[in-house]
Amino acid sequence: MNFNLKIYFMPMNFTDYCYDMPPKIHIGVTTCSDSLCVTVIEPRILAGHHIGNNVIRGCFSSVFRYGPTPSTDSFSASDTSCSRMPAYKLLPPHLAKRASNRTVELCWCFGQLCNDFPSAESSGFTKQSSLSSSIFLLAFVALIFYWKLLI
């Protein structure tokens, strides 16, 4: 089994146009009525050069295979927030041990179809308040401890 399939559910839609969707290209959408919306952006590196990004969008509950969906009660529902983090922080402990040192950009939001991918400049992503980022990271740390108890 591919390592990514151990972490993520198989996407229902595929496109190479995540950043610039032409008018005639449409991909299906999924409503996230009981989950927060997420976008995971992982840089593709070939021979040390950035050649693009892998982008996964969807509901938290239908993107990640492990862990309960974080509660949205403690988060601000104002805007999309993003945080750069080591990829291993999104993994359960038994997979985190094998993870590389890559970082991913994790963006999250609340509300239907809010994760249409925030417009990103080539040098960075949208900024968020440090408080909401800290709360979200704290929720993931709690999930990791929860997974450890289950294993």
UniProtKB/TrEMBL annotation:
Listed InterPro entries: Ly-6-related (IPR010558)
One Pfam family this sequence matches: Ly-6_related
Any GO BP: olfactory behavior
GO CC annotations on file: axon; neuronal cell body
Record keywords: Membrane, Transmembrane, Transmembrane helix
TM spans (from-to): 131-149
Protein name (database record): Activin_recp domain-containing protein
